[in-house]
Design brief:
Number of domains: 1
Order of helices and strands: HHHHH
CATH architecture: Up-down Bundle
Distance between the termini: 10 Å
Mean pLDDT: 88
Low-confidence stretches: none
Number of helices: 5
CATH class: Mainly Alpha
Structural class: mainly alpha
Radius of gyration: 16 Å
Strand content: under 5%
Number of strands: 0
């Protein structure tokens, strides 16, 4: 991993974008009568994850940033539940549920690691800006 200059360089943000793509592909299989139900809810929850990571990185205060990262994490849990329900209803196969759940679990781990790192850095009062934290995070991820 090279130098991190923006949220777009974060592996967690990149992986959650791939998750969005997977969710859109899966939800195309849902019945048309779910277009304004589970399809929309699943897609909105998926898009919420990288969007909230980006918004958190755009905030000026650690507390604000952290809150958006927690919202992103909550959206992962919401999405996971929606896709399990889709499997229960027979909209996607058990294997598809397992595959997307594995991707969600990976995103949770990456996001939890980023949140933990971010909180440690903000509690240490070093560095002082989100950009400095991103730079430090990129440097520590290379180890």
């Amino acid at each position: 991993m090279g130098e991190i200059i923006s949220y777009k360089d974060l592996d967690v943000w990149q992986q959650t974008r791939l998750l969005v793509k997977s969710v859109y592909e899966l939800t195309r299989k849902f019945p048309k009568d779910e277009q304004f139900g589970l399809t929309t809810q699943s897609r909105r929850a998926a898009v919420s994850v990288p969007s909230n990571i980006a918004e958190g990185c755009g905030r000026n205060h650690f507390r604000d940033s952290t809150q958006f990262f927690f919202i992103a994490r909550a959206s992962l849990y919401e999405l996971e539940t929606q896709l399990i329900v889709a499997g229960d209803l027979g909209y996607i196969t058990e294997q598809e549920v397992m595959d997307v759940s594995a991707r969600i679990t990976r995103c949770k781990k990456l996001l939890n690691g980023f949140i933990n790192y971010f909180q440690r850095q903000s509690n240490n009062e070093q560095p002082t800006t989100i950009n400095e934290i991103l730079e430090e995070y990129g440097s520590s991820s290379q180890d």
